[in-house]
Design brief:
heterodimer, A: mainly alpha, 2 strands, B: mainly alpha, two-stranded antiparallel sheet
Chain lengths: 485, 487
């Protein structure tokens, strides 16, 4: 019942927001904040009440949807999905807070944010592959509107189209696989499908269908074009959601569906994955070095980090699986924090081009302090959450394939190159000439912004320094998963 | 049966009244104003008579016409659609100074034709009632007499429609010359148990050719791809109140008879028609998605999208499975509610402001002036594109799942890629609605209302589409019950 309340509360909030007159901005903002923070607090209760000594799904709900088609609405979480739910509920209040409160489309923004939260919580908690597909796809609609309406750049329509069609293209193949499973097995229920073994040939086909959908979301190299475009055009809140949670849907789906349902096919396709992963890590990192738009740089670093995660997932041992789960969380927090920082810089200076920036350490020292810490997190400095994740991943992958591990570990070196250089360009040097001419007064962080960045900072070091809280809960699930191979 | 008789006598009464009132202008005006409400009452009576017809399965006139629950169901769907057409036509006709009485009498004659067409159980009566519908349509399309486009559209429809009717009749002739039978029951008995292995391909060639000819006559009216050339021109040229009727009513009628015709009578000659439907339906989806991208006018684009939707409906039928049949009927219901909602919004917009919405870019005014309508319209387009939580997605998914069950996996792949391409132009609609909002449009007014009946139509169909997942079980069971009549 707790899980059902958590999932449905954002929907209720969004409906209330929808029916309030758009001139009453403060009321709308208050309601949106109230729902999202209460959802966050309730999701902490999930964590507290979670029983880590079992691999069964907890907080289980099964509601009949269509008896004639054998469709059920099944909710439940295990150690895999718990932290994604908490991550989602954690980030949504910040995305609401960061939006400038006097903007024109305040009501629409809050409505879309709450709808996205509702759909994301469902994606991470639903245990029916058909419903998973539905919610996975439904996020397209609010995100499409968000990039198109609230986007800042001139290419926002192009990038919203790109986002829409890349994701739609990938998900088509997943739909075919899902329909095939339905026609052969007769159910969409994940708890039943877990115990069904498909034949080797069929597994390969079905695996390709699921993989196409997830790899576009992750994204890996041939399908990554939409990510920088969408990041550049989206508003700050949208970028944060995109980087920290929406990308994780792909890697979550890989663990949850590709690995659990089709273990033989996953094993078969290891060479393909390793090829894509090593390509994307190196290509993404090199691309990040030569970009000048700050959001693009972070987008390409996301490509690199997410592919390290996929590499960890497909090595099938407990170290790398745990590591990739932690790195998913860590990357969510760190890249979210970086996007918040960039949004704050943009709201002050109205530019994101690194050549026009510079010398910000003199103007906004506190902001630059936070930017520095998040940059360190991006390099995966020891002590931060990313270090833990990458270390575990490479420990695991070193046992499996040394060459690919070597190539992917190049990503660490390259990440320090682009991150430190980015930090250098933004914070040191001369104050940008363009900016001096325009004569804007620059303020340092204000209360709300400080609160957002501080809480992200605390989370980074909490995951990095007390890893047991995060490693213990999914341990049994991941252990049994790795035992399948 | 009672409903048909009731409708027939009410139309007679309407004709007599309108002739008697022709010279008395003051009274005439009063009667014509209320004519639409009289029609609404007639429709409701017909719905009740169809719901409670008192018998299960009966055939009359030497089994020329047949009545059962399956047919009653389709009649109710036709009646509801007809009701929406009446609601939409009333304001449009008043706004354009067109004669209301003629239009409504012709429209109800069309309804009568569809009623008899749905019930007909004989090739001859099938042809007669098909022609009764077509005659009404020839006049309804050219209803704006002084409009060039309208006359052009009517002429095109007339020429192509007559040729297709001739081909249909030729097919009837082939079957009659081979078997000497025209009744469906007799044909079913004649062909039952026949297959290719029993007598060879050649022995049924004449009947097969006849089936193909009848088949193409059906496909012409249902606007399936190689026979679709008339669709955009006729949609675009005819007045919008006729376009709604032509976009919805004949499709229901022909689909229902198509199912009865091919799934009962000629089911044993499956080799002659299954692959043709399979190929033509995927071809029409192909045509609709690639030609639709280049369209600039709203009605033409909707015409092409309707070709694609009809392709999906036939794709379900082409599987020759009971799931495919059910999914086609569900798709038909969903498609009807989507397109009626869309047409209602479009027609109400084009009356109220003295501007016709002709081009797609004209739609950008809607969101500015009536945000709720813009919101609903965008959801309808997402539903048509097949984006998940809406009705259009579930309908598409059911059709494709039946095709997967028939193990045409690569066809499903192909169709899904095509449907992704076609979602491009639906998304373009949404882009125009939301992202191209012009702050200072030349037609800037306050937000306007669209009238009580139309808002009812829009809200009901919108909620049906939005909460289709809730109705899914109910509709599935209903359609399952219907499909038992086919088996």
């Amino acid at each position: 019942m707790l899980l059902l309340t958590i999932v449905l509360l954002p929907l209720v909030g969004s409906i209330i927001v929808f029916f309030i007159d758009s001139s009453r901005i403060l009321l709308i903002r208050f309601i949106a904040l109230l729902t999202s923070t209460s959802v966050f607090l309730m999701s902490l209760f999930l964590w507290i009440n979670f029983d880590k000594s079992t691999t069964f799904f907890q907080f289980f709900n099964k509601i009949e949807w269509s008896g004639s088609l054998n469709l059920y609405f099944i909710l439940g979480i295990d150690g895999l999905s718990l932290f994604f739910i908490i991550l989602t509920t954690f980030f949504i209040p910040f995305c609401i807070l960061i939006f400038f409160p006097r903007s024109r489309y305040m009501k629409e923004y809050l409505f879309f944010i709450l709808v996205i939260e509702f759909l994301l919580l469902l994606v991470f908690s639903v245990l029916d592959i058909f419903l998973f597909f539905i919610f996975f796809e439904s996020i397209l609609i609010p995100m499409f509107a968000m990039i198109g309406i609230f986007g800042s750049g001139s290419r926002k329509i192009r990038s919203s189209y790109m986002f829409f069609f890349y994701t739609l293209f990938g998900s088509i193949f997943m739909l075919i696989s899902i329909l095939y499973i339905y026609q052969t097995v007769g159910t969409f229920d994940y708890t039943v499908l877990e115990h069904i073994e498909f034949s080797y040939e069929i597994q390969k086909l079905l695996w390709v269908g699921f993989f196409m959908s997830f790899i576009v979301k992750v994204p890996s190299v041939p399908f990554h074009i939409w990510l920088p475009e969408a990041h550049v055009e989206a508003p700050t809140g949208g970028s944060v959601l995109l980087a920290s949670i929406l990308l994780k849907m792909g890697s979550y789906g890989l663990i949850r569906f590709s690995l659990s349902l089709f273990p033989l096919a996953s094993f078969f396709f290891i060479p393909l994955i390793f090829f894509l992963v090593s390509l994307s890590v190196v290509y993404g990192s090199l691309n990040a070095i030569r970009q000048i738009d700050l959001k693009r740089i972070i987008a390409y670093t996301s490509v690199a980090h997410m592919n390290v995660i996929v590499f960890g997932i497909f090595c099938f041992n407990i170290y790398s699986l745990e590591g990739s789960l932690v790195l998913m969380l860590g990357h969510g927090v760190v890249s979210g924090g970086l996007f918040f920082c960039i949004g704050m810089i943009y709201s002050r200076l109205k530019t994101r081009i690194s050549e026009e920036l510079g010398g910000l350490a003199q103007l906004t020292p506190i902001l630059i302090f936070f930017f520095f810490i998040f940059t360190l997190g991006n390099i995966s400095m020891p002590g931060t959450c990313n270090f833990l994740g990458e270390f575990l991943i490479f420990v695991g992958t070193f046992l499996e394939n040394k060459n690919v591990t070597f190539i992917c570990a190049l990503g660490i070196i390259l990440s320090s190159v682009y991150s430190l250089w980015l930090f250098n360009r933004v914070s040191f040097g001369n104050i940008g000439i363009l900016f001096l001419k325009s004569g804007i007064r620059v303020y340092d962080l204000r209360g709300l912004e400080l609160f957002i960045l501080l809480s992200l900072l605390i989370l980074i070091f909490y995951i990095g320094l007390c890893p047991n809280d995060f490693l213990n809960l999914p341990y049994l699930n991941l252990y049994f998963l790795s035992e399948k191979f | 049966m009672l409903a048909d008789l009731f409708l027939f006598f009410s139309i007679l009464l309407l004709v007599v009244t309108s002739i008697l009132m022709y010279s008395r202008f003051k009274l005439r005006f009063y009667v014509f104003k209320t004519l639409s409400w009289i029609l609404v009452q007639i429709v409701f009576f017909c719905i009740f008579l169809n719901l409670e017809n008192g018998f299960i399965n009966v055939s009359i006139f030497n089994s020329t016409l047949v009545y059962n629950e399956y047919i009653s169901f389709f009649k109710i769907i036709v009646l509801v659609t007809f009701l929406v057409c009446v609601f939409n036509a009333k304001d449009f006709l008043i706004g354009n100074n067109l004669p209301i009485d003629e239009f409504f009498i012709l429209l109800s004659m069309l309804l009568l034709g569809i009623f008899f067409f749905l019930s007909s159980y004989d090739l001859v009566s099938l042809f007669f009632n098909m022609e009764l519908q077509s005659f009404c349509f020839y006049i309804l399309i050219t209803f704006k007499r002084n409009s060039l486009y309208s006359s052009e559209a009517a002429l095109k429809y007339f020429v192509t429609g007559t040729v297709s009717a001739g081909i249909f009749l030729l097919g009837v002739f082939f079957i009659y010359s081979y078997t000497g039978l025209t009744n469906f029951e007799d044909l079913l008995k004649f062909f039952s148990g026949v297959s290719l292995f029993n007598g060879g391909f050649d022995s049924f060639l004449v009947a097969g050719v006849g089936i193909i000819f009848i088949f193409s006559g059906f496909l012409f009216k249902m606007a399936i791809a190689p026979f679709h050339m008339w669709v955009p021109d006729v949609y675009d040229g005819s007045p919008t109140c006729t376009t709604i009727a032509i976009a919805t009513l004949p499709k229901i009628a022909f689909l229902s008879v198509f199912i009865r015709f091919f799934y009962i009578t000629f089911f044993d000659l499956i080799e002659y028609w299954q692959y043709s439907i399979l190929i033509l339906s995927s071809f029409s989806i192909f045509v609709s998605c690639f030609v639709g991208i280049y369209q600039q006018r709203v009605k033409r684009l909707i015409a092409y999208s309707s070709i694609g939707h009809m392709g999906f409906i036939l794709l379900g039928l082409s599987t020759c499975l009971i799931e495919g049949l059910q999914s086609s009927i569900i798709y038909l219901i969903v498609y009807l509610s989507m397109s009626l909602c869309l047409w209602t919004i479009l027609i109400s917009k084009s009356i109220n402001n003295q501007i016709q919405i002709r081009y797609i870019s004209d739609l950008s005014f809607i969101f500015n002036r009536n945000k709720t309508l813009g919101f609903i319209l965008s959801f309808i387009f997402f539903s048509m594109a097949g984006i998940p939580p809406f009705g259009g997605f579930f309908a598409k998914m059911l059709v494709l799942s039946s095709v997967v069950k028939a193990s045409y996996l690569f066809l499903v792949c192909f169709i899904l890629i095509l449907s992704m391409v076609s979602s491009f132009y639906y998304v373009r609609f949404i882009k125009i609605l939301y992202f191209d909002v012009k702050i200072k449009s030349p037609f800037e007014f306050n937000s306007e209302c669209i009238g009580r009946e139309k808002s009812l139509v829009v809200s009901f169909s919108f909620f049906f589409i939005l909460f289709f997942f809730y109705f899914l079980d109910f509709i599935n069971l209903l359609v399952f019950k219907l499909s038992l009549y086919i088996l």
